[in-house]
């Protein structure tokens, strides 16, 4: 029997955190709605017993040494959640952000059930939305207890004391005590039943751009991501799953692989084979040396075209599930002066986070220890328990920093796979997927086929709007037993069901057609898909009505103040009405998703050869109260680039049941020299904070589609955009080299003989 | 045994000659700041410097390093250009998930080291091989310019 | 008059009968017993066969990417249709497991299969005809020592008259040498060894020598270069400008044995495969012999524009990490793409950053204004096994448009070759189909 591996220093030990002196404040962030349940203790903290009335899922710890630590149930994956959450607590606790440290919570689904996601998960831009109030209340509670402790120490009324930057001051006498010195005493104070939150005008931290908590260790390689974990006696594995989706492992001849220096073990799974070595290189070479035969299974002939054809057929024939139906849809459509119809197609998308899939697992006879960066620690824990046959509490999961999630780490099938591999050996194994494996065995953003139509009145405005969405159910994959056949998956129509426009007669429905391909969330599934259709089509309507796209939207947002607000700001800041050079175009996109409103204007040019250059993006956002403007802007910049990258280049396709793409050379990512300049403007708002992580991704494709139309007069309704369709006549026959001025006449001469050449080529 | 000089320290590693430097650093020496992103020199996450010049360690056989000095993200802060880049990165909050940033910082410091006042075109040439999935490009550009002024 | 008519008729009948006999008489089998007697037995024979099988590069044509070696199925797109290489493993149903020694030798020397059917000269039996019977038998022994693979090759797609195999008999009569290559006593042993390796084994001329009207290699223009399946096999005669006359022996030796040579770039495409599958496995002595022989082939001046410019201005002015300030390409699409996907390996001064295999300086591929091989390499990538591991360039065909690849090619040719090129998206589209 092997000894338990010791936790690496970066792993969170919950027990260690909960033990020791000082003030410990637990509160229920998600479990009990927005009302915090609080308790302070220095002795035995609640740990494990979650059925008790007190069910904390987050903690503030103030040590006697003055160290302030926050255990937070959301996962940090670059979106700045921890900093945002810490800001809320610190604001009310009256400490500087530099005085606190935030760490991830251990997995516990009962404790951390995010209402919005139905399980402990970080996704859907929910973090700041869900925690805005309870975190501030928690901070305020701790502050009041510290002040009460100081007041008791000095025997003065609490009202004479103020807290600021981790120190309580008795104003009349100037006496001061630091939080660390007060921590033990504060723990003995009763938990106040009433807390008063600060007036927003007194905010010191909220609304200011403060430095991220998680970044200093990211400029010098000090922070550890899941892939960086090293535990004693660990070996490294890499894996190949059956290239045909759903296929199985047949025979493996591993003689050559075993001869590769450093290869330790070859592990067979039902649908995959892994090679374990002293290091990744040995594992990879070993894997390449395997002679594997696969059993292709039912998907052996699967091709992208079939999937899209099936979606189309389903869209046209299957009975849809109604998402919204208001007014006399048929009647209005018949009466319409003009009818506009279009169909849109969207591809499967891979996530391709920069950190490839990985997981360290040590399966011991009585216990399983896992180190992984996941957005769903509790699901991961459950899967590992299933695979290993161990009870849930014998599966210890150390959640790690994530090098990009985008939804990929909202599933944990790779953790189950890693556990299945580790189960067959006695030592800890770090499983690392190659990028090829990551692209080809992702769970993809589903493909969609949408039919949309509208009737226009004499004034050109829509009198009726009908949007038929067809695609798979992402949520269905998260529901044990699957999604009920006749039930609406709200995500499928999110962004389509309630466009931010005055559309009194509207029908939005969904035809469910699950693809034979695994699917999951992807940086805002519903809105990234639906808003592309809605906003492209809105532009089509404006064009059909002979109206300017901004003017058209302006008319339709008369009763939508927040939408109108961002629309106006984006139009103004982008200089919407100023003319552009030939070949250039501006496109706008307006939407409301994840509780935030956004309008984005994209300025591009399209060359005669059909090449798109992104020049400038102007984004106006109303995301309610902005906790950290800098983080909001970073999320908008990143989200926009993520969306542009997808719109221009991304689409997973299948041939013979296999994914055609494999790495960044064929699953292409937008690069630094292609990124536009981005300007971001905020609409001041006192609404509670909206999500921002996915919001700008939503804007990207429709703004680009509309800009392409403005530049070329061509409407592209299929993603990724087919740039070949933008070529002007004869562009094929012209050289696209940049020709030095002096050589231009020669080149012109060359070009003029080209048609003859091409004819020759045809022979 | 292959002799390497990594961040000023002499190391002897017993690994196959064709093993890419990336895995020697990460799995043998234990310097995990250098990241694996693609393994085919398309993303730049694995960038380290050899005698101050950026290379993709994922496709660099360890045997071909020779006497050249390897500098990784863990030590780039000890070079003047590296320090400036790190400061600018924090100042402008370039980083999101951070996974690509070791490579970005290694490429950027090498750029600044050979070109104290890089133009946009110089930045394009030096930085377009580094993919950032979080989309921090505009800030990377701004931070390089700020570091150049520091 | 009538007699004359009868005579004529008789003559026609006789000629027709002769032709018919020539075309349809069953091919006889050679006697291979003498050769069999001379061969070693057991592992020694198999080892010799393995070396020769590599030297003859059988695997290149008889294997499809990712599939079992020698199982066949590789498509050859010829001007008159597509044919597929057969399975030459010892499988009895789908391979050559039932072939006798004599049948195998006959196939190699005369291009006739077990059933007496003529094979197409995409199979380079015109070269192998010069191989000794012993060597042919050693190759068979090696192939039969490998595990048989059950795999049917796809049916050939040839139209009339090319699907009439007997037509090949005329061709064979005209273009296939009879009997093994005879040593030239006036030359050194090394030269003669080189000649045998080049002509009978490596069959260099099959790609590098232009073909005549009958699709046979035109030895009057030996090694003058040719184009096939969308790639150029460059001029490898000793012409200084358009051939390899300017290459040092060391450069040739390195190129053949390692797949790249300093200031000459790397072998890609079929030549890359020839090195990877075949040449790099040969002994240094054999490589030297090949160099000696190839360098002795008289110069052939070709019209091919792939002439290396030693020091193109843009290249010399660049450093590894920064292109020379060059107003012409300042904001070009090609430059932009090169910055993103290419510069990390190739650098801007032609040296290659991580590996000399990425060095572009002096390569004919980046000096050919037609961009023929350049476009193919960008589309399909390249691979080479080296003592320092596998060197690979990914294939960019899927994610990059014709416009982009054309622009990139023009940029690369301008920068690395100093060439004014005018590659169009249509050129790239055409290359994709080859
Ligand atoms: S991991 Fe080396 S460039 Fe991507
Ligand atoms: S910061 Fe996440 S990939 Fe660049």
From TrEMBL, chain A:
Residues 220-298 form the Aldehyde oxidase/xanthine dehydrogenase a/b hammerhead domain. It holds the Pfam family MoCoBD_1. Signal peptide: none annotated. SUPFAM superfamilies: Molybdenum cofactor-binding domain. Transmembrane segments: none annotated. GO terms for molecular function: oxidoreductase activity. PANTHER family: ALDEHYDE DEHYDROGENASE (PTHR47495:SF2). This is Aldehyde dehydrogenase.
Automatic annotation (TrEMBL), chain B:
InterPro entries: 2Fe-2S-bd, 2Fe-2S-bd_dom_sf, 2Fe-2S_ferredoxin-like_sf, 2Fe-2S_ferredoxin-type, 2Fe2S_fd_BS, Beta-grasp_dom_sf, Diverse_Oxidoreductases. GO terms for molecular function: 2 iron, 2 sulfur cluster binding; metal ion binding; oxidoreductase activity. Residues 1-76 form the 2Fe-2S ferredoxin-type domain. Keywords: 2Fe-2S, Iron, Iron-sulfur, Metal-binding, Oxidoreductase. The keyword Metal-binding applies. It comes from the Bacteria. PANTHER family: BLR6218 PROTEIN, OXIDOREDUCTASE WITH IRON-SULFUR SUBUNIT. This is (2Fe-2S)-binding protein. It comes from Phyllobacterium myrsinacearum.
UniProtKB/TrEMBL annotation, chain C:
It is found in: Cell membrane. Heme c 2 binds at residues 204, 207-208. One of its GO terms (molecular function) is heme binding. InterPro entries: Cyt_c-like_dom, Cyt_c-like_dom_sf, Cytochrome_c-type_DH, Membr-bd_ADH_cyt_c. Its cofactor is heme c. Keywords: Cell membrane, Heme, Iron, Membrane, Metal-binding, Repeat, Signal. Heme c 3 binds at residues 342, 345-346. PROSITE patterns: CYTC. One of its GO terms (cellular component) is plasma membrane. Its main location: membrane. Residues 44-147, 189-298, 329-416 form the Cytochrome c domain. Gene3D superfamilies: Cytochrome c-like domain. It comes from the Bacteria. Heme c 1 binds at residues 58, 61-62. Binds 3 heme c groups covalently per subunit. Pfam families: Cytochrom_C. This is Alcohol dehydrogenase. It comes from Phyllobacterium myrsinacearum.
